[in-house]
Amino acid sequence: MNIDDKDNTTYIEIEIDVNTLIDSSVYVDQPGNTIAIIQGKNIIYSDNPILYKKILNTCKNKLQSLSSGKNLRVALDRNNYLINIERINFPGTYFISAIPISEISKPLVRSRNIFIFIFTAGTIILSGLSYLSAHLLLKELKIVLKAVQKIEHGEFNISINVKGKDEITEIAENINMMAAKINDLINVVYKAQIAQKDMALAVLQKQINPHFIYNTLETLKMMAEIKDEEEISDGLTALGKLMRYNFSLGKELSTLGMEVDNAKDYIKIQNLMLNNSLHVRYDIAHEFEACKIPCLTLQPLIENCIVHGLKGKGGDLDIKVIIRSIDGCLWC
Fold first, then answer.
1. Which of 93, 173, 221, 254 qualifies as a cystine partner to 236, CB 3.0-4.6 A?
2. Exposed, middle or buried by CB within 10 Å (0-12, 13-18, 19+), for 143?
3. Are residues 38 and 79 in the same domain?
4. From the CA atom positions of the chain, what is the Rg in Å?
5. Could you give the CA distance from residue 135 to residue 220 in angstroms, rounded to a whole number?
6. Same-domain check for residues 30 and 98
7. In total, how many domains does the chain have?
């Protein structure tokens, strides 16, 4: 201060470190964000001088024409930056900040990764639960299917052990009830009828002494042969064989060959009464003769043909017996 100066003017010079001033007053809340103060072509302050020199060299003209509050995208050194500008009331001076795009998108990337993780984990868990449910469902269905196949093959004494309260359990319980009822019907009705028929047949067979009948037929046959009555002798022989076969019906099954022989004996006896008007032909493959079939299968069929074929008619009757194998079964 100059005492002799009539204007009493005082001048004070203050030196301030710009970097210290700005560092203490400027707060950057965005990670990776940097700032700079630009005046004309010079960088007055910057926390990353190298970066801002590149920014000025790259887009100086664009920055000068950019209005306050606007932003600009710049690619530098394989990194993308978002440049923001804020002009101040000082000629040719403005603030700029550079934020890496990667820092801006980090929350989005993090949220995306979390969403992908949750979605993937949820998908895996749901897939596992779906597979487990499907596996248990198919397991129960296979159990029910095996039981149905057993019923199809005539095995009715079954019990499906399926636990739960779903529709498959209800189906299994219904199948168990159905199989039990069928088995009861077979045991009560079918087996009882078979036993009754076997008893009636046994009683009928015991009513006549078979040996007495055989001896009587053999005596009559010898008498016919002595008198050269060959037709009567053949008829008695056929009758004896027919009765012997019928008396041996204690077994349920016979062979097709034995059934054919029994049918031929029956035809011989019928021809004696019908004056040889019956003509029977057999079309049966040789390999079928050993096949097991129920006793007295052919004779009732031939008898039915005779009854209906000669009913109210005269003349001869031609009968043809054809045996064929279709799908593993014999058809007559």
1. 221
2. middle
3. yes
4. 57
5. 78
6. yes
7. 3
